[in-house]
């Protein structure tokens, strides 16, 4: 069950959580299904379902575990956003290039994410369905300049033609790794401390000189 | 768990009210480091409801149960390892080399006791590899020590082996300490959570009953949501479970309730989700993402009509190991929480904003409890408690913590304050919200808890206080007194 049992020991393993946001029908599900295609883990309860997916990558010798959290895009579920995007390292904000409204919706998410999570989260704005380019309603220039203005990267994808998706996630992973590394550097030498906040039951050894008198086992 | 004389943090303090979320957060074993009593800051005058005093004795009962459980566990462990106890194969020859008292001691003590009591002897974290070899070479085969390797950043078990083996007779085994120690967590759950489960349930139930507003709202809205068709809850196209499947799911939820282990509960929740997916997929052959799944889950939860599911979800969210919260279990737990939140706030007239700020507030508190460094939480952190200061011209400030439900109005809070602070002329007093250097009088029909929730949900946390004080000058025109309005 533990899809993200963060290795921690041995070589460096990064575990990232990525939240998938965007209006219903923009193709979030197809996008992520494409990306994780044929990579389903049989141990998952939800094999073949697309709400929660994981992917393992190896980027420049570093292992990366990606957990992708899909969200419901309908307006009535908007208020639940925070419970899904809390603790995310990255967000993929998807709109449909043929649907101007879905792009507006992305802008709302960007505002909210920046407000709630600050600059710690790597944002990707994704114009999906470029196979329908002839019906495009969101101009490339507008989308790209908007993305730049909010510190996000912009991508064009087609889940149908499997275009641009691999690049999008690879790029996102690299950026999340950079962010994580910068954070580690900030923490300085306390490298061994980095994982402690996420630990399960902590084992704290008594110092050798500590006397066991009155220990928990004194009364059989 | 006991071999290293490990201890568990249970920062229970008698002066902090026993709200379920408080109880749960403090029973979280995941950050256990030592047995610590956290005393409330002595300077704050706490209001201690009688139920809390009762909880004090409950606490000691718990400790007794805990001790008993440990005793039983130890007995079990001793009984299941009789062969090791009688003739430890790798520790052969110890008896002869040691003082005469050792043998009789060995017979009386279990392996566990011996390890516990002797660890100052073998746990030599400071010795180097060379020193370890030097010490062990003089010892008979089977003797071991544990040192720490700076290069590996790990503990290393060094064992003296028989001489006839090739190479050095000392072997070194680095000890891998996993981040998520399932065995340990399981043992902790068994010996701490299991005996506490009924106590937690009683506390959660009492809390639900006492907090009539919330329980009532949940009941009413569950009943209302149950009457809705799947489409009205956002289901679009996918086929919902039929009454038989709903009954099956209800049954699973009831089983889930019986479990004490948060992980086992979550695995049952995952089975429910799996069943929902299977039904959706069997009828269409396509795969579904959150756009379809969340509405369906909401529909299922509404159909099950189980208000107690809410406390079960809380139980899991508080007690599941944080590393598992990021995984699949965490995702579906989040979805269940979301579905429940939607139903709780189902009534159409309630604007999405209410949910947003309240859900955010709750989540914010929950998140802080589960991820922040564990310090004793302040009473203010908990819902249904409101800290109000009495400001008097001559005596300065005194603060009290009052039970204030989300639906309690400012008017009601004022009369509570008058009673608690023993104010002879309450009509000249009012409740004010003080932030920075502004002071706003609250209108009688506002809800202080909602205002608090709203303030908590603001991106930049502001320091604020609720102050009960004399209305400055009644002759002044109303214009000088701002009325803070609930903007919901």
UniProtKB/TrEMBL annotation, chain A:
Compartmental location: Cleavage furrow; Endoplasmic reticulum membrane
Pfam families: Ras
GO CC term, one of those recorded: cleavage furrow
Keyword entries, A-Z: GTP-binding, Lipoprotein, Membrane, Nucleotide-binding, Prenylation, Protein transport, Transport
GO biological process: protein transport; Rab protein signal transduction
Bilayer topology term: Lipid-anchor
Positions of the UniProt region annotated as Disordered: 184-220
Gene3D superfamilies, per database record: P-loop containing nucleotide triphosphate hydrolases
Biased composition (Polar residues): 190-199
A molecular function GO annotation: GTP binding
Family: Belongs to the small GTPase superfamily. Rab family.
NCBIfam families linked: small_GTP
UniProt-recorded name of the protein: Ras-related protein Rab-21
Name of the encoding gene: rab21
From TrEMBL, chain B:
GO molecular function: GTPase activator activity; guanyl-nucleotide exchange factor activity; small GTPase binding
Ras-associating domain residues: 382-473
Domain of life: Eukaryota
SUPFAM superfamilies: SH2 domain, Ubiquitin-like, VPS9 domain
Location relative to the cell: Cytoplasm
Pfam families (alphabetical): RA, RIN1, VPS9
Alphabetical GO biological process terms: signal transduction; vesicle-mediated transport
Signal peptide: 1-38
Coiled coil region boundaries: none
PROSITE patterns in UniProt: RA, VPS9
Keywords, ordered alphabetically: Cytoplasm, GTPase activation, SH2 domain, Signal
CC terms in the record's Gene Ontology section: cytosol; endocytic vesicle
Residue ranges of every copy of the VPS9 domain listed in the record: 212-352
Protein family (similarity comment): Belongs to the RIN (Ras interaction/interference) family.
The name this protein goes by in its record: Ras and Rab interactor 2
Organism: Sander lucioperca (Pike-perch)
């Amino acid at each position: 069950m533990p899809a993200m049992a963060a290795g921690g020991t041995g070589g460096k393993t990064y575990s990232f959580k990525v939240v998938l946001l965007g209006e219903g029908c923009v193709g979030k599900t197809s996008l992520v299904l494409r990306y994780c295609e044929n990579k389903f883990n049989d141990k998952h309860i939800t094999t073949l379902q697309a709400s929660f997916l994981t992917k393992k990558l190896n980027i420049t010798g570093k292992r990366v575990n990606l957990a992708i959290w899909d969200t419901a895009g309908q307006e009535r579920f908007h208020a639940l956003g925070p419970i899904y995007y809390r603790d995310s390292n990255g967000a993929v904000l998807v709109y449909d290039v043929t649907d101007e409204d879905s792009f507006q919706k992305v802008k709302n998410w960007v505002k909210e994410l920046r407000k709630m999570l600050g600059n710690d989260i790597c944002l990707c704005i994704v114009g999906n369905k470029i196979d329908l380019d002839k019906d495009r309603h969101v101009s490339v220039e507008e989308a790209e300049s908007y993305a730049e203005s909010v510190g996000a990267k912009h991508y064009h994808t087609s889940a149908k033609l499997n275009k641009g998706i691999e690049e999008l996630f690879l790029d996102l992973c690299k950026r999340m790794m950079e962010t994580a590394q910068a954070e580690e550097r900030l923490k300085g030498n306390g490298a061994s401390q980095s994982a402690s906040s996420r630990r399960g039951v902590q084992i704290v050894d008594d110092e050798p000189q500590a006397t066991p008198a009155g220990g928990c086992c004194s009364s059989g | 768990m006991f071999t290293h004389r490990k201890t568990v943090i249970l920062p229970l303090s008698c002066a902090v009210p026993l709200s379920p979320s408080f109880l749960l957060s403090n029973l979280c074993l995941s950050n256990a480091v030592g047995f610590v009593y956290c005393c409330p800051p002595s300077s704050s005058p706490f209001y201690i409801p009688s139920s809390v005093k009762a909880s004090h004795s409950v606490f000691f009962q718990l400790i007794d149960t805990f001790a008993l459980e440990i005793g039983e566990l130890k007995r079990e462990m001793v009984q299941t390892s009789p062969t090791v106890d009688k003739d430890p194969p790798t520790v052969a020859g110890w008896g002869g080399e040691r003082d005469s008292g050792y043998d009789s001691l060995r017979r009386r003590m279990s392996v566990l006791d011996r390890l516990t009591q002797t660890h100052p002897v073998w746990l030599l974290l400071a010795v180097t590899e060379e020193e370890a070899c030097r010490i062990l070479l003089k010892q008979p085969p089977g003797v071991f020590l544990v040192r720490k390797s700076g290069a590996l950043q790990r503990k290393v078990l060094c064992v003296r082996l028989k001489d006839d083996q090739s190479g050095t007779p000392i072997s070194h085994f680095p000890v891998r300490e996993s981040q998520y120690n399932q065995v340990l967590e399981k043992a902790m759950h068994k010996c701490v959570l299991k005996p506490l489960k009924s106590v937690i349930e009683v506390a959660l139930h009492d809390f639900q009953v006492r907090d009539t507003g919330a329980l009532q709202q949940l009941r009413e809205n569950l009943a209302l949501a149950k009457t809705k068709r799947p489409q009205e809850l956002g289901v679009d196209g996918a086929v919902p479970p039929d009454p038989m499947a709903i009954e099956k799911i209800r049954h699973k939820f009831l089983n889930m309730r019986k479990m004490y282990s948060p992980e086992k509960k979550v695995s049952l929740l995952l089975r429910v989700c799996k069943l929902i997916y299977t039904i959706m997929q069997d009828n269409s052959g396509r795969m579904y993402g959150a756009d379809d799944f969340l509405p369906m889950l909401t529909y299922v939860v509404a159909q099950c009509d189980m208000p107690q599911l809410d406390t079960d979800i809380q139980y899991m969210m508080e007690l599941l190991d944080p590393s598992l919260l990021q995984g699949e279990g965490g995702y579906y737990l989040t979805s269940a929480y979301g579905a429940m939140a939607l139903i709780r706030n189902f009534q159409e007239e309630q604007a999405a904003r209410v949910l947003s700020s309240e859900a955010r507030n709750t989540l914010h508190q929950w998140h802080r409890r589960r991820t922040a460094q564990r310090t004793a939480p302040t009473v203010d952190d908990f819902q249904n408690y409101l800290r109000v200061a009495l400001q008097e011209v001559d005596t300065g400030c005194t603060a009290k913590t009052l039970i204030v439900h989300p639906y309690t109005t400012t008017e009601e809070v004022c009369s509570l304050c008058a009673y608690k602070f023993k104010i002879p002329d309450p009509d000249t007093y009012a409740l004010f919200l003080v932030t920075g250097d502004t002071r706003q009088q609250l209108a009688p029909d506002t809800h202080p808890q909602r205002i608090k929730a709203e303030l908590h949900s603001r991106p930049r946390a502001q320091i604020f206080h609720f102050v009960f004080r004399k209305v400055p000058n009644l002759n002044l025109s109303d214009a000088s007194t701002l009325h803070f309005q609930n903007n919901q």
